[in-house]
Every structure is written in C-alpha cells, then in structure tokens.
Amino acid sequence: SYAMVAAALALGLGGCGMIHGLAHDGGWATLFDGRSLDAWDRAGNANWRMEGGAVVADKGSSFLVSKKSYGGFEIRAEFWSDSDANSGIFIPCSDPVKLTSVVCYEVNIYDRRPDPVYGTGAIVDVAKVSPMPKAGGRWNTYEIVAGSHLTVKLNGVTTADAQDGKLARGHLGLQYAPGVVKDAGVIKFRKGGDPRALTASS
Q: Is the full-model pTM beyond 0.85?
C-alpha cells in the first residue's frame, strides 16, 4: 500500500487559507498557510508571490515544488487563469528540479495549447480531453486523484480517467510557464472547500 496525500490550495479571508496534506494515518500536514511559501522550493525564475492569501505568478518560467514527497495524491484546488497562461499541477514528480510530463503527471491548465487534446483538463501524454474545456477568466476547481488510477474533474465534470502506474512517488509541483505570448497571463491558486471533506486510503 502507499500513503496518499490530499491537498487543497487555499485562499481565506485575512490570509488564513491553507494547503493541507492527508497522511496515510489520517493526519493533516500543512503545506501552505496562506501567508508564506516556506513548505515549497522554487525551480526556475517565475515571480511566485502571495497576494491576498493566494499564490500568484505572471512572469518568468518555473515551478513551486513541495519540499516533501508523497506516494500518491488526492487534491482539491481552486485556480484562476488567464486564457494566455500556461500552467498546471504536476504529480508525483520524481525529480524536484527538472519537472516534466515524463517525470510527473501533468494535469494541464492551458486554454490556448497548440495541441488542444492535452490542454486544460487533460493529463499530458496520458489522458486526452475532448472537447477541451475553457477555464480562462474565472475561478475553477480541480479534483485530482493520482495513484495507479488517475482521475481529473474540472468543476465537477470528469475530464480525464486513466490507468497508469508508472509514477509511484514524488513531489507536488505548481507551474507557471510562457504560453503562446511570452510573459502573458496570470495564474492563481487558492483553497476550495473544507479539506477535511477529502478522504484518502492506504
């Protein structure tokens, strides 16, 4: 069996939002407290910062990478993206420095991806999405489960479902990268809902 982490990216009034991780023993570990990025490393040069309790980037190219690694993920995350932004949630990443869709599952956020079958709602090179939903210009919710069975829901609708057990353990990565227009668009991540409502099993 493997430990599974449940995470919720957060925005709360007064900056009290959190990302939580659910360990295999059912306990919660805080990954993000809405005030600092102390539980994360930076890989690259994007201008990740805190604004009103949300994690924001709009220039450069890089990842925020969780300092700890996990054996699986169950994630609920709210995100806001410009249509031009190129972003995604990468899990589980075996290399915490050079994150790619080869060493991670990339749950994409990219409305203007040149090949839309792996755009927003897809798991790049694993599960296509058709038709690709559009997420730009509003808050959206991702619900992601990653183990040997991968599922992605965008705003309550399943957009990706696949069996793929090649990646067993690693870090969580949040991406900001140049899209069609360099340094265009913004990505924000925040908490959605009560993380205690998420469940995980070992």
A: no
- The 3-state DSSP class for residue 90 equals strand
User: 11-43: per-residue pLDDT in tens?
Assistant: 222 222 334 444 444 444 566 667 788 889 999
Q: How far is CA 149 from the centre of its chain?
A: 17
Q: How far apart are the first and last CA of the chain?
A: 5
Tokens 């700890």: give the residue. 68
For the four alpha carbons of 5, 38, 10 and 78, in that order, the dihedral sign comes to negative
Two tokens, residue 15: 């900056």
d(CA 46, CA 60): 4
Matching residue, tokens 């899990």:
91
Bridge partner list, 56? 49, 188
CA 180: distance to chain centroid? 20
**149 is written with which tokens?**
């069975």
Angle, CA 145 vertex, CA 144 and CA 147 arms, to 5°? 145
Beta bridge mates, 140: 79
The distance from CA 112 to its chain's CA centroid, rounded to whole angstroms, is 18
- Look at residues 69, 66, 60 and name the one whose alpha carbon lies nearest to residue 87: 60
Radius of gyration of the chain, Cα coordinates, nearest whole angstrom: 15
Q: Which amino acid is at 20?
A: H
Nearest Cα neighbor of 124 from 91, 172, 171, 78 is 91
